[in-house]
Amino acid sequence: MALSDLFAQNALVRLIRGDRQRYDLAVAMTGVRLGERVLQIGCADAGLLAALGAKVGYTGRACGVDPDPDLARRALTSADAAGVLVETAAAPYARLGYEAGSFDLVVVRRVGALLDPPHLADALREAHRALRPGGRCTVVGGGARGARGGAARDTEAVIKATLDAGFRGARLLAERDGWTFVEGLKPAS
User: In the chain, which ranges are continuous DSSP H helix?
Assistant: First the structure.
C-alpha cells in the first residue's frame, strides 16, 4: 500500500471519527482504563460520555446522568452513533440513583447548570457517595469550543468544593487547550 493511501485512510478515519478526537485529551486526563466502571455527571457535552464509553470497552460500564431527560437522551444517541455502549438516566444532581460504591471513576463535566456552585456541590457529594473507596473523581471544565473554565479563581473554587465534598488530595491536574482538570480521591477507608 502506498503512503498516499495510508494518509487517505487516516483522513477518512478522522472524518468518520469526527468530534470524538476533541475528547482525546479529556479521556487521557481522567485516567480511565479498560474495564472500569465510569459515571459522567452532566450530559450537556454528549461526546465525552461516548469517548469514555469507548475507553472502558465491553468489559467496563459507562453511565451518564443529567437532570434534563433530553440531554440524557442526546448523550445516549451520540454514543449509539459512535457504536459505543453506554447507559443514561435523568436524575437530579443531589440524587443520582446509583448505589454507594458503584463506580471506579466519576467525571463531573462542568457545563450548563454544573457551572453554578450549588449544583456542583450537590454533584460532588453524590460523586463521593457513588465512588468505591479509593476511587477518583475528575472535574472537567472548559473545552475546545470555548466553554467556560480555566480561570485561577474558578479552579480554586472547584478544588475547595471537591475537598468540601469529602475528597482528599484534590488538585489541579492540568490546564491545557481550554480544558481544566481537577482530581480528588475518595479515601480508601
Answer: 3-17, 24-30, 46-56, 69-81, 117-130, 152-164
Residue 12 covered by a domain: no
| Through-space distance between the first and last CA atoms of the chain, rounded to whole angstroms | 56
Domain membership flag for residue 156: yes
pLDDT means per 10 residues, the chain with 189 residues, are: 44 42 89 97 91 95 96 94 94 95 96 86 97 97 56 82 96 90 94
pLDDT of res. 153: 66
Question: What pTM value is reported for the model?
Answer: 0.84
Question: Which domain covers residue 148, as residue numbers?
Answer: 21-185
**Going by C-beta distance under 8 Å and a sequence separation of 6 or more, which residues neighbour residue 116?**
none
Cα-Cα-Cα-Cα dihedral sign, residues 27, 31, 36, 40: negative
Q: Residue 111's pLDDT is what?
A: 82
Q: Is the dihedral of CA 66, 67, 71, 74 positive or negative?
A: positive
167, three cell numbers: 475528597
11 within a domain of the structure (yes/no): no
pLDDT at 151: 53
Cα distances from 23 to residues 81, 122, 140, in angstroms, run 16, 25, 11
Counting the structural domains of the chain, the total is 1
Domain at 151, CATH number = 3.40.50.150
d(C-alpha 120, C-alpha 139), whole Å: 9
